[in-house]
């Protein structure tokens, strides 16, 4: 594997904002070829969860996604703050977005959303036994509708291609496998 790794010769930031950071790298391939102007998007890591309440209902969220120009059905999730543990971030995001608190949260996968151009990692969790403890505490630009479905309904929504976010689809599959709802 080491023979495939590129060496970064230089990096220059083109834009550096909280939600949009892009740099231009110059790299050297193992055979000596130089790759000029390789653009890399730096995003923070994030977490998502298939969250099942104490009543065995799965929490889903609907929210507008501007780049897609769509209201999407998703699983709860969000950005991991700098220095924050992914599991702690997931607990925080579940509480903020849904008002549910979860003690039973286990990691089910770690994925690179787009490793050819992006630096971030998505940590997926299975959260069980959630209890409603507060109302939503959304960020300034968030508008989220929480819905609850059964596990069979979740499977139907998945089969009907009702989820638009690829990482959520894979996280749901991992959770269903962990729950014994999908056999490989």
UniProtKB/TrEMBL annotation:
<dbReference type="InterPro" id="IPR015797">
    <property type="entry name" value="NUDIX_hydrolase-like_dom_sf"/>
</dbReference>
<dbReference type="Pfam" id="PF00293">
    <property type="entry name" value="NUDIX"/>
</dbReference>
<dbReference type="GO" id="GO:0006753">
    <property type="term" value="P:nucleoside phosphate metabolic process"/>
</dbReference>
<dbReference type="GO" id="GO:0019693">
    <property type="term" value="P:ribose phosphate metabolic process"/>
</dbReference>
<feature type="domain" description="Nudix hydrolase">
    <location>
        <begin position="42"/>
        <end position="171"/>
    </location>
</feature>
<dbReference type="GO" id="GO:0016787">
    <property type="term" value="F:hydrolase activity"/>
</dbReference>
<dbReference type="InterPro" id="IPR000086">
    <property type="entry name" value="NUDIX_hydrolase_dom"/>
</dbReference>
<dbReference type="InterPro" id="IPR020084">
    <property type="entry name" value="NUDIX_hydrolase_CS"/>
</dbReference>
<protein>
    <recommendedName>
        <fullName>GDP-mannose pyrophosphatase</fullName>
    </recommendedName>
</protein>
<dbReference type="GO" id="GO:0005829">
    <property type="term" value="C:cytosol"/>
</dbReference>
<comment type="similarity">
    <text>Belongs to the Nudix hydrolase family. NudK subfamily.</text>
</comment>
<keyword id="KW-0378">Hydrolase</keyword>
């Amino acid at each position: 594997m080491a023979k495939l790794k590129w060496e970064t010769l230089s990096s220059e930031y083109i834009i550096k904002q909280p939600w949009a950071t892009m740099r231009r790298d110059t790299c050297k391939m193992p055979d000596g070829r130089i790759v000029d102007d390789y653009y890399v998007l730096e995003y923070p890591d994030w977490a998502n969860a298939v969250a099942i309440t104490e009543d065995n209902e799965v929490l889903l969220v609907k929210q507008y996604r501007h780049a897609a120009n769509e209201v999407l059905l998703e699983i709860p999730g969000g950005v991991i703050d700098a220095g924050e543990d992914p599991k702690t971030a997931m607990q925080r995001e579940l509480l903020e977005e849904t008002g549910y608190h979860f003690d039973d949260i286990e990691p089910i996968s770690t994925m690179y959303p787009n490793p050819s151009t992006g630096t971030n990692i998505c940590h997926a969790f299975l959260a069980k036994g959630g209890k409603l403890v507060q109302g939503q505490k959304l960020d300034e630009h968030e508008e989220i509708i929480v819905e609850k479905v059964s596990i069979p309904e979740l499977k139907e929504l998945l089969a009907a291609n009702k989820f638009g976010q690829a990482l959520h689809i894979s996280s749901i599959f991992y959770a269903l496998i962990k729950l014994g709802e999908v056999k490989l």
